[in-house]
User: Fold these one by one.
Assistant:
Number 1:
Amino acid sequence: MTTLADPVPGGRPGDVERAGALSGELAGRDVHGIVLAYVDTAGIGRVKTVPTAKLPAAAAWGVGMSPVFDTFLANDSIVTTDVLGSPDGDLRLYPDLDQLVELSGQPGWAWAPVDRITQEGERHPACSRTFLRRTVREAAERHGLTFRASIEIEWALGRPPGPDGVFVPAVTGPAYGATRQVEASDCAADLLAALARQGVEVDQFHPEYAAGQFELSVGALDPVGAADRSVLVRQTVRAVAQRHSLAVSFAPAVIGQGVGNGGHVHLSAWRDGVNLHAGGDRRHGMRPQAESFTAGVLAHLRALTAVTAPSPASYLRLKPSQWAGVFTAWGRETREAGLRVVTGTTGHRDQAANLEIKPVDLAANPYLALGCVIAAGLDGLTSGAGLPEEITGDPAQLGAEEAAARGVRRLPVSLGEAVEEFRADETLRAALGPVLADAVIAVRRGELAAVAGLDDERVAAAYRWTY
């Protein structure tokens, strides 16, 4: 289980002693350094590292890092809000020892996600991991709910880019083709072995639709653990590929046209050990709470895209009839709707049933994405919201009148439109708090300014090797 207690100066109870023991064990296995990882508002993984012997000090007093990274853009430019973006100040990064893992794909290193607090020991209001942990805790306290979540990982496997940065697929063959699996066999086997040694449960791994594209699905955890796992899996995919002289892009759009990389979120709500998405008398076995939770996510879906699809490149991927889920619609196993109700197979539904949120990609900060999706669902649960009629087939084929009558709307077609939807959504902004909500808006606007005037191919190129 993920640590749910906030860090404190001097360390959480027992952490310093535990870190000392872990440090000795890791050093005995020739682990020389610890990667301390978090994800910024732009969705970029940032790190500091410490020698293994310094893990107890990090557990006690944290490791310093500037708060300015909360308003960094993907290209490392800096924007500001009324609180963030200054060169002043310092934060402390505290590793979550429950999630510390030796990196099989990077011999000599271990990895741990961090929470960030101020030097005075207060929560940092822009720490996305703290935001998600707080959201999960409040759902348990106010509604008696827990959650299980997982994030799909899609990437394009390519040859190392030259000076022009062009993407050249490392494998050939058709979508889901056996030839791709054969050509990537050695790298893929090493990846599965590395993930197994790191304790990551892999459900599926296969070639995907786009050129050089693969997808990996992992087992569900609590939401904070699921977000941590998403970051760890990407670190491992990249490291293993590099050892095979290959390059990886998790960008939403690797090229200007065609199918991009998604990061679909799977989420289920539970109460007293019972999956609320199965065994009920509502549509497709949902219980009333699950139906209202789903309705809440649907109601906020347009605003959510500013968090779940946060890059200008995200909107090169969010196109109709490409299984990206670009409509405010839901249905059972409907891969063109924004929300896909997954029931699972008869006999396994009490464990497998869940809600898939499709307009999500891996430019998203997974802690922000999961926290905001849960906040939207809880809003529906609180109000007892009902779901509209479900859809089947492709919503793009509906006439304008029928779509309007059924409440089916296109999701934002640009990041600018998504930001305006987010600005108007009081529920999501209140969940994030003013400091983090303002950072989301400022960073998204900064990304728009950074690519102003670029055509689709140059927008894709700007982010191709960033994520």
Number 2:
Amino acid sequence: MKRINEIVEKRNLKETVLQFGEGNFLRAFVDWMIDLSNEKYSYPGSVVIVQPIPNGLADLINEQDGIYTLSMRGNSPEGKKIENRVIKSVSRAINPYETFEDYKAFVESEDLKYVISNTTEAGITYLKEDLKEDEVQDSFPAKVAQLLYFRYKKFDGAKEKGLVFFPVELIDNNGYYLEKYVNKHIENWGLEKEFKDWVKESCHFTSTLVDRIVTGRPSADEAEEFSKENDYEDKLLVFSELFNLWVIEGDKEKAKDFAFEDLPCNVIWTDNVDPYKKRKVRILNGGHTSTVPAAVIHGYDIVRDFMEDEIFDTYLNDLIDEEVIPTIDLKKEDLIKFKEEVALRFNNPYVDHKLLSITLNSISKFNARCLPSIVDYYNNTGKAPKHFAFSLAALIRFYEIEKNEEGYFGKDQNGKSYPVQDDEKLLEFFSEKAKSENYIDEVLESDIWEYDLEKLGDFKDLVKKYYKEIKTRSIRDVMEEI
């Protein structure tokens, strides 16, 4: 069987994008968008992938001439859907640990305009290190400071040779922190003030929010089935969901080629990413956190189980419509559309998302994802949110655990054990409190919550009421009556 690059012709465009990271996410997200834009507009141009650590996929990417397939799978308003696309936006890959001169030559290229990165959350940190002349730096911000210095010297500080950065690492204000640590390296290396001014005036660091579930490489069986169906071999095949969102906080005029106009890329340029971050955390993440403990207690195994249950589905819809959306400062129609997209994603027939994997560290998740909505709802209305009161009652019931030699375990309403994973001190706290007759009171009165629940009217009383009902009745029946 032929390889994909033996039957697909490369698209030859100027190499304008440097991408730190060859993993599944960037190839299923940004590189897909660039491919769509290249096909329609012939810009922004080709991507050169730089391997951010010594071991990676650079050799395999070059063996396939940068060509690979993205298979997007999920629920659409019309039903189940699979959309395959051959991606031709990547021209080549460089391993700077083996071919530093090739890397430096591209960094100093006339055509380079943009830098994309996904070096994991740990990538954008400051680690003190000396400036290197003939090998790549260790940390990612140091790599950026180094490549900018090479470029500054190559073009004698020409203002038009600055770069635009699009970090997609999953930390808040990723562009701000990348620029901050780059400048810290510049200061630590004692480089000239003119260079620091050039970085400030000629380069642009955006902060971004990304959203797409990339399930990654297929299993051996899935890859074999794909090859038979499509009559070619692709060792870089990657699977993702259909949904995608890229929110970019920055000056759109500095990166016109990254507008992706009239394409299904869902790219939003804004001067403030925070409302979109709040939308994602409160609706998507908060939707999980407010329903999953109850679903586990009922005996469900995967997200799709409770999404196909009319009672759970109605509860989640009402919680978001009545108690979450009013707390977010964006257009209501946009929030409702996002909620509908979230429902399709939760019910993805191609992803078996285990409920227990979502319950990891649920106390901190509730504090971050749900409690802010509860506080805002109460402050706006003067009323305690009843759906969230139920969700907290279910969460506390979920953490009603005992310790044994294998860990900490709770029991669902069918008597089946389930493991609970969290900070050890929290697990010890709950396992001790579970022995008390006043379990619910002691948990609600503890300092594990990041807001004083006494300030929320009768919220605590509602939580106690629902907890007692969950203890004596089917959790599904309690949910139905809310």
Number 3:
Amino acid sequence: MLSRKPALLKNSPLNRSRLVVGSGRSLPEVLAAVADGLLDERSGGKRHRAVTVMYFIWAPTQEMAAERLELPFSTYRRHLVSGVERMIDLLWQQELRGTGLSTKADQKPS
């Protein structure tokens, strides 16, 4: 449920990015994988939960998302902003390096 307006994702310039085209995944799948990548980072669980509730599970408002997570609104907003900014950083890093998307799900146990 990544967007309340699926046409925005369909028409997003990100669909033409090396990351999406080269991965063989749809933009929502790439964004979900990057969000899951937050779990590998320090404080990433907090960021992941905020981003997931707002954009993937879908909360009608940020206030309702904060309530679902049982967080004060200001704390929720801090986690959400931090999570979105980190996802942007990760997407840019992967796009510029051309290394593709690497997530826990892509890694095979040794």
